[in-house]
Amino acid sequence: MSDAQANVGYTGDIIKDWWALLWYGAFLLIFGVIAYIMSDMNLTDLTIWFAGLLLFSGIVFVAAYFKGTMLAKNKLQPLTEGIVYFILGLVVLLMAPDSEAMLMYFGIFALFAGLMRVVEAFTMNAAVKQSIGKICFIMLLVAGFLSLIVGIYVLVFPAESMLDILWAVGGYAIIYAGLVISAALSGSK
After folding, report:
1. What is the pLDDT of residues 41-85, one digit of tens each?
2. Domain ranges of the chain
3. Is the Cβ–Cβ distance between 187 and 21 less than 8 Å?
4. pLDDT (tens digit, 9 = 90+) per residue, 132-171?
5. Are 144 and 182 within 8 A, CB to CB?
6. Is 95 left (phi over 0), alpha (psi -120 to 50) or beta?
7. What is the pLDDT, as a whole number, of residue 187?
8. I need a surface site. Which of 90, 115, 145, 189 has the fewest CB within 10 A?
9. Of 69 and 115, the one with more pLDDT
């Protein structure tokens, strides 16, 4: 164990809630694959799947908060992220299916998710980031900035057809999931 690891109470994991990121990434990946496979999906189906993604992600991040994050500077981040996702999931689930509203909620989700990944990258303990967390830091930043760009794009230039929405949401979810899963796995040891 290096001096940097000893100084921050290193216990074997760069990010103590790496498993929450892994589950979150898995949910995103499943959601993205479903969006591609079920290209004949209607707006009601997409709304239900998206609400499910948000609700399950919210539960995972709230659980991560209560399990504890030893190396995070911002210990309230998983709780905040979980509550926002859960509330947004309830709003999406209870709304009448409307493509404009769905894209707005998806854009809000992408913006918030991007902000959370960037905050998570920059609040990672500096000693750990320098010694063993460079890949995790980079993956979190790339995922965060990608998500911010997609969120802004979706809010400024909404898609016209259902197929456009499915392809955009599915593609984003798969790419973002890959980055989040990579960050989680690189942060696990």
Report:
1. 788 888 888 999 999 989 988 887 887 644 455 678 888 999 999
2. 13-187
3. yes
4. 567 778 888 898 999 999 899 888 887 777 777 788 888 8
5. no
6. beta
7. 64
8. 189
9. 115
Under a CB-based contact definition with an 8 Å cutoff, are residues 82 and 23 in contact?
no
Residues listed for the chain: 189
Query: Beta partners for 72?
Result: 124
* Contact (CB, 8 A) for 52 and 66: no
